[in-house]
Every structure is written in C-alpha cells, then in structure tokens.
User: Fold these one by one.
Assistant:
Number 1:
Amino acid sequence: MKQLEKGRISSFQYMCMLLVVRITATTVTFPFMTDHESPTDAWIGAAIGIVVSLVLLELIVRFSLNFPNMTVIQYSQSVLGKFLGSIAALLLIGFWVFDAAVAGRAMGSAMVNAFMPETPVLVFIIVTAFLSANGARQGLEITARWSELVAVGVVMSALLLALPFQAMNFQNLLPILPYGIGPHLKRAAIIVAIFLRYSVVGMIVPYVHNRKEILRYTRIAVLISGAVLIAQSIVLVAVFGARATSSAVPTLQLVRQITIGEFFERIEIFPVTLWLLNNGVNMGLFIWASSLGLAQLFGLNRFEPLTYPIGGLVTLLSMLLFKNYVEQIHYLIRVQPIFVPVLVLGVYALLYAGFSIRKLVLPKQGNLEAPMILEAGPDEIE
Amino acid sequence: MLRNLVRKIKRFSQSERNKAPGETRGTYKHTPLSHVLEVNEARIRQAFGDSFDLVCRRVAIGKHGSIAALVVHLNEMVNPQFVSTAIIERIVDKTEHLTDPNTVYTQIRDSYLDLTDVAETHDLHKVAYEIANGNTCILVQGVAKAIVCQTQGYSQREVSQPTTESTIRGSKEGLVESLAVNLSLIRRRIRNPNLRVEQFTIGEVSQTPVALVYIEGIANPGIVAEARQRLSRIKVDSIQESGQLEEFIEDAPLSPFPTLLRTERPDRVTGNLLEGRFAIITDGSPFALIAPATFSMFLTAPEDYFERFFAGSVIRLLRYLAFLLSLTLPSLYVAITTFHQELLPTPLILSIAAQRNQIPFPAVVEAILMEIVFELLREAGIRLPVILGQAVSIIGALVIGEAALRAGLVSAAMVVVVALTGISSFVTPIFSLAISVRLLRFPLMILASALGLFGILAGLASMLTHLLTLRSFGVPYLEPIAPFVAGEQRDVVFRAPWWAMNRRPRFVEEQTDKRVAPGQIPRPPEPEQTKDPGR
C-alpha cells in the first residue's frame, strides 16, 4: 500500500478539526433557527439533534476504528469488493466536494450580505477555494495546525455570547413546547445533517497518533460544539425574542450590537475573521479528504496535484448550486436534513453490512487486513 | 513551479556532489616534504608564487651553527615579536650543543619551543596552508618533516557593544570577527567540558574556519548530526559572512522568513545552547547562527529574561503587537479608507475623509508611495557616512513630514501610519525578521486595495499556511503555538518566572534533566513567635 499522506496528527488536533468542521456550518448563518415555527424553545431541538448525532458518530467512529490503518476509501473496497466499494467511495468523495462547495457558498453570501455588497460572491469563493486548496496540498499536518489555531479562537469567541447579558430577557424563552415536539424533530434533523459532515473522520482516523483517544475526543468535540450551539440558540432568543428567525445572519446581528465603552463599536470583525478562517480550514480539510480519497481510489502516486483541480470544482459547484440566497436557505433547511443522512448513513450502513457479512461468511478470508483487524478491533477501541 | 525549480536545483547540486572527491580547484595533492632544505624552500616559495609578504628566514642552529633551518611565515599574519622570541631565539640558543639534525628536530618539537600549540606534518601543501593560516613552520636540513607553530597574530576588533542588538540590562559584550575570541566569550559563560566545539573548514579557496557549538547531553544528537552533515557537504569557493553559510544550510531557501536565527550577542548564543540548540560561528563574521529556530525566538530579546517576569511578559506582548502592526498597518489604512469606512468611529473617519479630500491619489498609491519613501530614507540612513546622517533626518522630517503634507501630496493620517509602521518595525529584535516583514507589507497593501479586509485576511492566511509548513532542522517553525504544546507556553508570548521554567523545549530529548529544581519560589521565612505583634 502506497503511503500517500505521511503526516501524523495528535488527538487534540483531531478534536480541533472536528470543531472546525461543525462550527463553520452554523455559527453565522444559523440555519436551524430560520423559517421554523416555535423558535422560542429552539434549544430543545438542538439538544435532541446533539444526542442523536452523538450516537451516530459513536457508531461511525467505532466502525472506522475496525480498520486502524486504512481510510474509509481503502476499506470500502476491501469490504464491499471492487465495484460496490468504488461506488460507495465515490459517493463519499462526491459528498465532501459538494459540502465544501456549500460551505464556500455560505461564506461567500454571508460576506456579500453583511460586508461588501458590491463585490460579486465569486471573488470570495475563488480566493478562499484557492487558499484552501493550497493548504490541502501541504498535507494533513498543516490543516491540523490551522485547525488548532482557529478552533481555540472560535471556542474563545463563543464567550462573546455572554457579553450582551443586559439585553437578555429570559422570559422570551418561555412558552416551552407550544407546538409539540414536531418542529423540534425537524430541527434535530438539520443538526444531525450538519454533524454528519463528520463522515470525513473516516479519512482522518488512520493518521491520528494516539488512536485510543479518538473516541473520547470525538465525544468531547460533539459536546463542546453542542454546548456552543445550545448557548447560541438560548442567547439569540433571549435577546431578540421571536424576531430571531427574521434575520439571515442572527449571530452577526447580535455581535453587532455589542459596544465596548461606546468607542469600539464594530467588534463583529473579530468573530467574522475567525469564522472566515474557519471556513477556509474546513474547505481545505474537505478538499484534502477528497483529493486523497480519489488518489487512493485510483491508485495514484501522489494526491497533491489533485487539490487545485478539486478546488476549482468546488468553486464551480458553489456557483452553480444555488441561484440565490433563498435557494441556499431552502437547501439548508429542507433538502440537507434528508439528503445528507440518507447519503452518509446509507454508505456507512452498506459498509457495515458488507463488513458483517464478511465476518460471518468468510472468517478466514485472506483479503487485505480483514482477519488481523477482527482480532485487533476491540483492543484498539478502548 | 517553485517546487520543480527547487528540485532541479537540488538535482544539480546532487550531481556536483557525486563527482569524484578531491581534485577541484584550489586543493593540492599530497606531496611529501623533501630532506633537502633548499628544495623545500623553493617549493614553498613556488606555492606562494614568491609572494612579497612570505618570510623565509634561514637560521643556523646546532653546534657552531652547523645545521641549517628554515622559519617560514607570512609577515602580517603572525605576531613578529612572538616569532623572534619564542621560536628563533629559542632554537638558536637551546640547540648549541647538538649536532644530529634528527635530534635537533625532535628536541625542538618536544621541548624547546615556548609555545602551547605545536604540530607536525609531512605534507608540503599542509605546510603551505598552515602558513596561509597565520602559523609559522620550522624546517630542518635533512629532516623531511615540518613543525607547525601557532603564532597567529593579526589585528582584530576589540570586544565591544553589539551594534544591532542593544539592551539596557544584560551583558554589553558583542561577538567580534575572530572565531577564537567568540569561542572564548561563549566558553566563559558556560564553563563546562560538555560544551563541544567542532571545527569545519569551509570554502575551498578561503579556507574559512567554522565552528559548530553545542552542549553534549542537552542538544538533541539527531539535530546536531543533521547540522554536521549539512555543514560538511558545503562545497563553495569562499565564505565571507555567516549569511552565506545560512543560505547553504537553511531548510526553506525560497521562503521570505529566516529559519536560522542570527545574533551578535554571546548571551543569546549561550541561552539558546542551554535550551538544546546549536550555534554555528564563522570566522570573519560577528553574527552567530542559531538553529533550530522557531518563530517566537525572533520576537524575543535577552532582556525578557533578565528583567522581572511581569515586565518581560508585557514587553514581549507589546513586541508581538508591534510585529502585527508593522506588517498590516498600511494595508489596514488602505482597506478601511477604501472599503470599510464604517469600521471607524464617525468623528475619526470624517476627519480622515476631510484630509483625503485634498489628496490626488487613491489610498493605495498614497500608501505605497509613502512606504517606498520611508524605505528609501531608512536605507539612506544606513549607507550615509555618519557625518551626513543629520542631513537625512532633516530631509526626512522637513520634506516628508511638512512639505509633502502642505503640498497636499499625502494626508496627515498617512504620515502617522507610516511613522507608526516604521517605529513598530524597529521593535523586532532580530533584523532578519524585520526585513521579511518589510517585503511582505507591499503585497498586503495591494491585496487590501483590491479586496479590503478580506484581501488582508487572505494574504495573512496564505502567509500563515506557509509558516505552518516551515521547519527548521526538523522542528516546526511555529512549534509551541501550532502544533500546540501546552507545557511550552511559559516562554512564548508570556515569560514565566525563572523558578517555573523547569523544562527545556520539546525537541530536546534529554527531558530527564530538568532546568530548575522544583519548589524554589522565594518565600519570606516563616514568622517565629514574634514578640511584638504590632510590628
């Protein structure tokens, strides 16, 4: 097996990458808040979504740990055979490229909406995609270090949420479950769809130095980002009340209201800067994952030359995906919660089915690392 | 593309390296010395092309002056008094009772010379190189060997204050051009036999002595071996300054950032040696090179460690701020006045807008113009003879500060920005980092003029990606920050008190050897049963 990616990352870096991947999607454009009934108790939906995601991710990561030295692309073929395995791998790769495009578009339209309305959105996406592809080209270690720098900053900047405490009115939260549990399940589906971007861990796991800590750090990452999410939904409602749904970028609006000593007014520049960097790192990670996946799938010698073409693909896709902002929001709220779980969970279910069948039917099959993995599996996990 | 270029360059240098070792320009074959003194003398004269300053002094020694001997040296490279009293006088006086040339030779070599460092050689060309190195060679008729005496004595600069890194507190000594003096400055600070000095001779024509210094038991042996290997593969005609050496051994030859730290201060050298790094000292250059270098080292001044730690930490924080300012301030000005006027408080932006109303240029042209003028003034300030220095400052202050403003060429805010940038860039303690910041400022300004703050962010992000890929002798350039090492944060932006700095950086393997014994926080003595509690 050719060693395409030589980097090794620590489990702390792994956790930071997970934080980056999740926080990008929701911090500024807070999709699960918009266009829904019953916004006042939105945190219930968030909590349900986090619990479900925790369970699903536990399963996905545990399954990946059955193959401690292979990426999901590599073991998909050893589990499902050449044909089905390649299809599963291509689906995942396609999803990562697609998701990078969605993230790029979200970033671009937020920039246009909030800061530079006269600049075409393409400019922001091209620049970010180029820089991300450049970062992805340098390998996983660079992306991991970037994540470290950014994730710490983002989690710190979540403390900004506590600043407008004078404007908070917790009475706003009050009617709990006025419309029953229904809207919350929809919300939870949005959250789960966002957390399922973690399917990318299938590419990262074999490069983590200390595998025993992977599960623990996955849980920590989900809980931290879940805590930020819940805090965000509570603070937004406490400050804005039911109006929180009416803004496209509610968090940004919240931070805009903060002034320090009536002189430092526009401090949203700091969280936005972090968020932009975050987005770039996130796109870089997905571009890295899809380039490496493609290279492994087709048995190439290097994955680096693929990063710029995939960056270009991401740019094109992000322009073609949505005609306008309404369509983008529609995707985030109506399409993504069904499309992403079906795709990701479907692929992983297929892989798991193949894996179990192999385990049952062909226990002594000499194909690749399968027998060794079965023995090593449980020890590796805990 | 750059990568391909580097690969090509590497391949080229590889193919050069793989040539048969030996006969390149400037090196001589091994030629044995002759028994006949006249032949040896002729050959040495021939090797030096009968140079004007070559002194071949014939001395008659032995009983009744029966044995001819030859004392050879270069006139201005030796201490003449030393040669006459410690060598010539001695060999003439002491050998008066001897007749056999071989006995004379061995007696001179072993006991008669009033010198500490004496060696012997059979090789004519070794003799020639030793003479060129400022040593004196003694040859005796009938003996095919030569005694090499260390008599170097040329004028050198006195140890003085370092001119590029001055401090208020701390040693005032700076390194000088002489390797021996520099080594003595370092040895005097670390009086330990584990301080190792390895000598390399680099430069096939210049034969420059270069020393690799490290502390055995603290430095990581792998890193030292890598340094040794990189030094020994240099094939070049001459090394005149450590900057040349730096370009041969650095990790990232095409990066704008320096991956070796250079310093003029012996205390900085020893401080880094004690943290497990190594130093390379080049004869003829007062700048030592230190590696593995990490980014935070370039923003560290020796004073941080000598002042009390509160002051040290705050000043260091200030320095990081200054670094960011000197990098981004002009581009921030461009971005904010062009795109994001709303970011400034209204009265301020109104005042800036009122000034800019008169200015014929767009903000980016104004900024680049002023930055170039400032760079010109700075460069002129370095090159001008000291006597003319005042003229530059008058021109700078009057022409730029007053006339350009009055003529409406630039706005007052721009002058403030340029001045602040300039002052911030002087704060960087290591000049080589300040140079790269000077270069990187201009692309950032252009990006800011095109895309505003987003452009600055994009520029900084690509810069950071580059910094994250850099390594210095295998150690990541941004080491304690990313990859994040929690234990080393005590000496990055903040400087922990000395009694808490108990560990060396992570790349040092010998972690068992702690720096500071635990539990040394100074405490006042436990109060005894005080007799007068009111005191």
Number 2:
Amino acid sequence: MSTESSFAPFSRRNWLKSLALASLADPKLFASPAAHFAPRAKRIIWLTQAGAPSQLDLFDYKPGLASQFDKDLPNSVRGEQRLTGMTAGQKRFPIAPSVFKFAQHGQSGMWLSELLPHTSKFADEICLIRSLHTEAINHDPAMTLLQTGHQIGGRPAFGAWVSYGLGSDNLDLPAFVALISRPSGPTNAQPLHERMWGSGFLPSKYQGVRMSSGKDPVLFLSNPPGITTERRRAMLDDVAALNRLKLADYHDPETQARIDQYEMAFRMQSAVPDLADLSKEPADIYERYGPESKKPGTYAANCILARRLAERGVRFIQLYHRGWDQHNNLPSGIKSQCHDTDQPTAALLAELKERGMLDDTLVIWGGEFGRTVYSQGVLTRDNHGRDHHPRCYSVWMAGAGVKGGHVHGETDDFSYNIVKDPVHIHDLNATALHLLGLDHTRLTYRFQGRDYRLTDIHGEILKGVLA
Amino acid sequence: MKSVLALLTLSPLATMAAEVSFNRDIRPLLSDNCYYCHGFDEKHREAGLRLDVRESALKDNDGVRAIVPGDLARSDLWQRIISKDEDDVMPPPKAHKKPFTSEQRVLIKRWIEQGAKYEAHWAFVPPMRAAVPGGEAAIDHFIEKRLKAEGLAFSSQAEAGLLLRRVTFDLTGMPPTIAELDAFEAAVSKDFEKAYTDAIARLLKSPRYGERMAMDWLDAARYADTNGYQMDSIRMNWPWRDWVVRAFNDNMRFDRFTIEQLAGDMLPKPTQDQLVATAFNRNHMLNAEGGTIAEENRTKTVFDRVETTSAVWLGLTMGCSQCHDHKFDPITQKDYYSMFALFNQLVETGGVDKRFGKKSYSNMYDSLYALESPYLMLATPEQEAQMKSAQSNRDSAEKALMARSAEFKVPFETWVKQVRADGDLLLKRIEEDGLRRIAGTIKLETLNYEKLTNKTERALVELFLRGDARWASAMKVIDELRAEEDKIQQQIPHVMVMRDEKKRETHILKRGNYETPGDIVPPAVPASMPPLPAGTKADRMALAKWLVSPQHPLMSRVVINRLWQQFFGRGIVKTPDDFGLQGALPSHPELLDWLAVEFRESGWDVQHMIRLIVGSKTYRQSAVVTPAMLAKDPENALLARGPRHRLDSRFLRDQALALSGLLVEKRGGPAVMPYQPPGIWEEMSFGKNRYFQGTGEDLYRRSLYTFWRRSVAPASFFDVPARQSCAVKPQRTSTPLHALTTLNDVTYVEAARVWAEKLASLSDDDARLDHAFRSATGHHLDARGTTTLKQTLAKARAHYQAHPKDAEQLIATGESKRLSKLTPTEHAAWTTVCLMILNLDETLNP
C-alpha cells in the first residue's frame, strides 16, 4: 500500500512520476493537477471575519433608514423568511439605522462607513459585493458552507481544493496556511473548528496547516530540549543511512518517500521560524499595521505574517478574526472590531501594492452572513443589537483580476433582500477559483462514486467583477 | 503510459480478443460518461433516453435507436461517440467529460458488435461461491489464478520475525515482544504451521485484539467524546466504545453485532448491554448553538444516521438521494426518506435537553456535559440512591424558597421593570450575567413562581434572589445542592441510545430542505433491493434482520471487504464506501464472493475469517518489491507480494508506549487526556474549552482511550478521520508534519528516554542496539546497521559529554520519573538512539 507524499507541487511531471511509483491508484482520482488556464492570481489571502460583520454599519449605506428609527420593519419586507431562535420570539422588529456615518471615497466615490478610515483609502482598489447571500442562518453551518461549499462538515476547505489543484510554490512550506486571531475587546466570539481548513475527503496532505503564535508556530516544530540542530541533523543523516539500507533490500518506493519526508521536515524546521520571526521587520512596518501588530497572535500581526507567507509562495493564506457577532451592544462591539482590523487590512493592501504583489494576489474580506436591520433586544438611539441575516451581506475583493472601485449588486432600502445581481457563496468561490486559473466545474475529486466540486453543482463566475 | 493505465484500471485490455464484459468493461464507461443524464434519475434524464437499462437503450425513439445490437451504423450511441459535430458528439463538450479514448471506443464498438449484452450490477446480485479445487485454500487459489493470468507468481514467505510483527500489529495494534519473537522463531524451526496457528490463536485471545478491532469501528461510527459544532460540549458515550471492544473480544457473531447496534432496544427484554449497543446511531454530532433551529438540526441528525448506516452495512452512498434520485445507483429519493423514516421515531427535538456540570472547571470531568434524550444512566445502586437523595434535597429547597414568593413577588417585579427601563442597568446585566433576551421578554403578569417550568424565567427570578440579601442565603443553599447533584451525575455515564417513542410521519424533503416537506413516505428498505419478508413491520429491527439475511447482496461483501482492507491496506473493492455503479470493480470478484458466503455460512464468525486471511499464503508473503513487480503492479492489487503500509498514527503511539514499557493497559472507562501542546483547545475555542492534561497512568493508556474533541482532533494523531461523519477508508499520506510529530512530540521523546533506561540492563552496546532494533522491526541488526548505529551512539556520547546541559534537558523530558543509574550523558546518548529507531522507516511501516 502506498501513500501520498509531501507538500510537493503536484506538477504533471511529478504526477507521472508518482504514477510510476504507484502512489496513485486511479488516474481519474486526480483529474486536475494544474491550472486549467492562465491565472490572474497566483495566491489568495482570505481575511475571514468570523461572527458576521454588519453590512449595514460598514458597507451597505442606507441613508433612508435614518427617518425610520424604531419603526417596525414592514412585514412585506420580511415576508415569510425564517428567523433564528434568538429573535423569532420578538414581538417587534424595530428598525435600527446605523449609528455610523458614511462618506464617499476615492475616484469611484464608493460609500463606506466611518468605521473604516484606513480601508477607505483603498476604495479604488476594492470591488465591493453588496449582494452576497447564503442559506445557513447559524455560524457553524454558515462558516462551513463559506469554506467548503456545504453546510455539513466533511468536504474540503477552499484552500485544500487549491492546494490539491495547484500544489505549492515552496517546497518547505505547506500550500495552505491558516492563522487565527482573537479580538481585543470583550465580545461574543465563536470557537473555530479544524474542518474550516481541513481537507475533507481529499488526501490529508492538502489540509491547511494552522500556524499559531505560541512557541511552536507549527505543532511539534521545535526539537526537544537537549537536541540541538546539529544533533538533529546528525540523527537524521543516520536515519536516512539506515533507511537507504532498507531501500536497497526492499526497493519499496515508500521508503524513498520516507527519506524525502524527513528531509522536508528538517527544512521546514528552519523555514517556518524564519517566516514567523517578525522581529526583523523594520519599525515603520509596525507603525503602518498599528499598535497591535507587535503582539503575536493578533489580527495585525497575522496580516504581517500573511504578507510574509505570500512572499514565500504560499498559495492560500487564510486569516480568521473572530468577534463580529454583535447580538447586542453593536455600536461599541463593531467599533472595537474595526479598531482591530481596519488599519492592518489597509496596511496589508498598501504593502502588497508597493511590492507589486497586489497584481497577482487576490485579497478577500468578509464573513459568513450579514446582520438584520431590525434590532435584537432593546433599541435606543445609541445602542442596539443585530441578529443573523443570511439573505444579503457584503464582502469585498481586491487585487488580481478584479475591478477596483466597483460595486456589484444592490439590496433593498432595508438591506434585507437583494434587488440586483444576487451572488451566492458558490458564485464567489467559483470566481475566486477562476482567478486562480481553475475552472470550478473541472476541479473535481471522485469520492464515493461522485465527482465532487467546491461549488457542488452550482456557481456562476461573476463576470461583472472581473477586470 | 497506456500500459500503466490499463493495469491500474484492471481492465485486461491485453485480452482484446476475448468477449467484452458489460460489468467489467462497459458499465464503468457508461456510468462515468452517460448515466448522469441518461441514467436512473428520471427528473434529470435528457431526451427521454435511458442507457442503464437494456430495454430502454434498444428502444425505438422516433426512429432513432441508441443501440442496435450488432449494427454499429444504426446505433446512434456509437455514431454520437465518433461524431465530429460539436452539437452531436457525446458526451457533449459542456459536460466537461473527457472524450472516450481509442481503447474505450474499441471496447464499446466490440460490445455493440457482440450484441450489446447487459449484466446486472455485480454487487446487487447475491454472492455465490465459485468452486475451489479440493485441498486448496480458497484465498490462495483465487489470488494465484489471477497472478498466473498476469504472468506473476507468489513471493516467498516473509521472514518469521517480520511475519510475527505483521500479524501481531494487524491483530492487536501492538508490536511483539522480544520474548514472543524468540519463542516464535524457536517454534517455527520445529513446525511452522503449528507455531503460526498457535501465534494467531494467542493473538486472537489477547484483550488487545478487541481494542485494535474497535479502532476502525469507531472511525466508521464517527464516535467522539464531544458533540461537535460550535459549543462542542462533552458527552459520555464511552460505555458504547467499551461494548464494541467486548463484542470483538467475545467474537460476537457479526449478525448479532449488527442487530444489537441497529435495534438492540427492540429485542425482547433487552439487556443493558443491548441498549448501550444502540448508541451506534447516537454517535452523531449535536448542535447546541444559540439560535439554531431545532428541526433543522434534527433533520441533519437523521440524515447522518441514514448515511452512516448505509455506508457501513450497504457500502452505498445514500447521501445523493437526499435531494434527488441517485444519478448512478438504483436509489430513489423516496428510498432515502423511507430509510429516514426508520430512524425518525425518537423523542429527540434537535437540540440538547440535558446539561450538567460547570462552565468554569478545573478538571475535565467537572466540565459541561450536554446530551439529548433518549439516554440511559448507567448508575450503580449506590449512585442511584445518592442521586435520588440529592434530587429530593434540591427539590425541597427550591420549593421552600418559591413558597415564599408572596414575600419577593413585588420586589422582583419592581426590579425587572427597573432593569427594563434603565438601559445601562440592562446592559450591565447582559454583560455580567449573559442574560440576553430575558428581561425584555418575560411576562410578569402570568408568572407562577411555584411552577417555573421556563428555564429563562427561572434564571431571571433566581438572579434576582441571589442578588438580594433577604433571599441570597436560601439561593446559596440551592446552588450548593445543585452542585452536589451535578457531581453525582458526572460520575454516572449517560449514554445516548435509540428508542422509538415518537410516531412521526416522514415526508420527502424537497432538495433535502426541512422547510419544504413533500409526500409522506412509509418506512421501508430501498425498493430495488430484496424486500422485507411479507408481513414484517418496517422498523429498525426489520432493517437489521434484512441486512443479515442470506439473500442480501451487499452486507456480507461490504463487511468482509473492509476486513480484507484491514490486513492488506486495500480492499478487494478499493472503494469500501461505494459498491454502487461508480465504485471500483473488485480486483478478485470470485474471491470476494467466496469470502462473503463463507462469512455468512460460518455463522458470521469474524475470527474464523481472520484466521483464513492471516493464515493464507497470500498474507504470509514477503513484502520485498522488485522493480518488475513495481512496474507491473505498483498498487499491489494483485498481491504478488505481502502487504506493507505505514501504521495508523494511533498505533504508532501505542507502539512507542509499548516498546518503552510506559504503556498502561487499563481497559475501558472515561477517555483520558495524554500529552498535548498547551493552548490548542483554548486558542480554537476562545478559551471556552480547556485542556486538562492528565497525570500518571492517564498519559500512557492506549490511543483508543484518548479524549477525542470533534473540533480539534488529538494533536499526536495524524491521518485520522475527523470523527464527524462516517469514515471507512484509511488515509495514508506523508507530510513533514508527521515526521515532526514522531521526532518531537513529548510522547515519543519520553518513550525513547524511558526505553533507553530499560535497555541499560543488557550487557553491552551490541546487545542493547540489537535488542532495541529487533523490538522495533522484528529482525536482527545486520553488520551495516550495527556500524551506523554505533556511529550514532558515539557521536551522541561525544556531544553530550561536551554539553552536559543538553543531556540534562533531554533526559528531563516527560512526566515519568527517571530511575536508572545511567549517567546523564549515557542516558541522553541512548535516548537519541532510541528516538532514531522509533523513526526508522521499518519501525513506522512494518
């Protein structure tokens, strides 16, 4: 029985080689070993905002709501749509206009909230989608749908599909890295699941590797106390020598794979700390990313890491920032979230742009669903909450292959229903794959007799957002 | 390239002259390329053409016939395949299917020329035994027949030590000891057959056997110690895990094993064990996220039962039929919901209805538990008595306080109104007490303090009482009594089980959505399979008995195929989860059927089947690969050599513990928390889930007993299923992260350190090196290996002599006490050698 080896790029050449080495049973299992057409983006940095940021307070400007304070959301708008168990019992659905001001930015005149002063400077780089929608109404299924194209766990995450489809550009690092951060303010944050960056039914070498801010950025990366790098090198040399003896006797390609695997592990032991060591970043970098960026494990520090990962050829970099679930105290909660994320996000865009990397990097910012126009709980002039809202919400993309300064889609006066150009999660994912040079209908993997896709049987490429 | 492909798909294209077989050559092509639009699913059928049934394929369709047997010119199917016209060609370009290769075209052409004969899908026809010449072992007969046809032959038998190591791992998940190796090698020199048979008998009797067998079953049954989803709180289904271990160790007949797990509760006067067995279908996840919609959750739970049961016993992927008729297999959406109906009769509501324990806790067993009815409490009589008295104490204290409602009614109502009116106060309450919607929604007018059935109402009243000096002490007593009750409850396993208590009508759910119910369907088994016996009530018991009935085409094949996979790393059908039309064809169909029939006729005797498998010449072969073999059969599907595959990471850990002597063989009971780098659960859960690493024995139990949190699998394991949904196919990949685990995880480093101490009792370096190497690999160290390892040792000694601090650090790894008289330098040097041996290819990959 043979195994799939390493993070190595799954180039056509390697594919044939591994076929000869018996690594793959059925060529149909690996239908898509490389890009289908010339890519616009070489990599994706996905700035996942977990907990569902309110589109009403950030991106979807509804000036008409100001006069509707505390009025009931018309039944005709709400229709028969289901509500979560948290507000289904509410007697009233009083409209809560955003307490934040909006202004137009850039040449494009994009309306953005005062909560995003830094991101607003990039209005002309941003392609804002105001008409994204999902079916899921609770965090876990919704996040799972966003990441894997299905509400129930068990399917590969987006990054795993990309890693499977395109392999890695860096032999010493995984193709898919996940970074998680927690909010600085007191807020309601959801736990995360490994399946958000899992490989589902794809071979597990395609799974995302979570880098943490602890002693070991990657699990078990450090040598045990008392084993120096030189000692480890000597030990691995002897392991390899014994394994080569075995290979000479048994001719099992598995043994060669083992020798390679241990060499890669050794290289990773120096590549990862070098990557994770932010201490060599110049002081002005920290200034650009803001005061939090010096604290390991914050969103700001992770944004710097994201740039370093991108520089090193990592294909799919996924940040998770939690804490956007403002069922109550939305005004203070969202302010704190924006304090954590706005400046670093903008600094990342700026750096990518300066280094010419925004041309081949696709940056996506967004969460798993939106929030309701009506208040959850008590509504006052300066305080309220908002419940989950899957019918419409906003995300933005920037960089490789997307139109800057462009707004796609439109919602009704209450940001409750979509009135123009609805975009489903599958459409967003199909489009992001397209930018990577992958045809979402052809990036398939046979499992249990079916050719699975990230976009299931759905997904339309959003031609309107492509540059 | 062509020859590799031909071999890989196991289509003997070399024998082109022979008759084309529909099942082997044609169906896979049609299924892959045509059935999606011209198959079983009526709603998705294009041009009214159906190709999976001969009658329809031959039918005259407005003067056009897809297939005219023997007549290519008039067969539209053929003309479409070879068409150059984009509008005509099949499969159409928009389907993104690759065009048929020239070999495939030849097959289709010849098939039509030969009369376009159809055959029933092999897996849907009950297995029949083919004859085996007298005196021959069936397994070896069928394997050798195929080998000969391919111009291959069996390899020689593996060295005795290696064979013992292979079979010991396969049957117990652990390596043989040096004493066992010595005894076996001595015995085989006298009488190989007897020695080997005795060894197998010994291993099957070992209690480790049940633990090893349970591991795969737990993966299939998506067993875990938490509920999954966002909260991922703890459950207590571990008595079911222990039941599985016991069932394997008792060699329970597999039909009984099936019936008890699917329908133990429906047996006459079921025993406690038989009720516990039904937890198989309660190992699904539970969603307790605030605001979820219960019926949506419940529906997903029942989906999971249908899909797990069908994957495990039918080898079919029912999931497709949740939304529409299956595209490839004869499973309709109606069939799916008929199966759904069988699992749809529980009182469950789709949430969590039993919680106990504390939010802030200082050890694992003190933490929050959440489960859903029905569940079984496995209390001893003492525990039951304690529980009753604790409940009644708490109950009377609560009643006594609520009886004073006349005293506190007015102050309470005033307080609520105040909270409502004062935004700041409400916010403070929300932040401090997490009481979100309560103050706003509670109906003061109708509140009955003596009967506070509503949880939120009770919580609000109690919050007030706790905060007021007049009633605080009474509340404190109640809180203490509750804590007392919780403590007792946590000692009592609560196992979620199956019990049909709620008659529910089952509807077809359009697109699988609980919000759009369609027609009502009665419970039933899939219509295309053998029917239930006339007059049988369709329930879970009927399903279980139907699965184990002699005429069932799938169950015995599916189960025996997984058993084969356990030993050879690959099933005879290499898609153990798909025996349908899209699944792989068996590499040895006659053998699969022979084994399936033997399994049933032996009285579903698992150990009998294991004895046949590991006793075979096929299994005993050496795993040495020759370049010729590799070129011809890279996957070892034909078995011209013995099996060799990397150990499951959970058995790698067991091996390290066993070699070092750290292993604690305590069996069963609540899961334990061995080493795990700090902060993993905390970082993932925002500090809500805390890992309390165990101490002493808990660190060294077999991996089977490691606590499995669904949101974060145990850190020391790799290539393991997520335990969220059914998994029946092992993952064997190789990434640098795996090497980092076995090189750096304290689990392995400590094992090396303790193992080094154990070796010290041996006379000299040579003896120690050989002993260690042989324990880990099953064979003696040769001269070349000895030279290398001695160099390793010399270099390590030199380093640690020069750097005593490094030595001190290394030998301080792990919690276990250092006992030996070895000097720190010597101990560190040997630790290095042992860690190295634990990481040899041969050690990882028997």
